[in-house]
Amino acid sequence: MSLKQKAFGAAKWTSFSAMATSVMQLLQIVILSRFIDKADFGLMAIALFVIGLSQMFMDMGISNAIIHNQKVTSKQINTLFWLNIFAGITIYVTLYICTPFIADFYHSPELVSIIRWTSATYLIVPFGQQFETLLVKELNFKSLSIRDVIGKTGGLLASVLLAFWHYGIYALVYANLFQALVSTALLVVYGLKIFRPKLEFDWYSLKNEGFFSFGLFQMGEKTVNYFNSQFDTLLIGKLLGMEALGIYNIAKTLAFKPYQIINPIVTKVAFPVLAKMQDDIDKLRRAYIQILRLLTYANAPVYAAMIILAKPLIILFFGEAWTESIPFLRILAITALCNSIGNPVGALLMARGRADWGFYWNLGMLLFMPLCIWIGSFWGLEGIAWGLTLFKIAVMLPAWGLFVYPLCKAKFLEYFGSVGKPILLATASAVVAYLVSPSMNNNYLDLGIGLFILGAVYVGLGMLATNNQERASLMHFFANKGQVGQQS
Question: Which ranges in 202-280 belong to alpha helices (H)?
Answer without folding.
Answer: 203-208, 211-239, 242-276
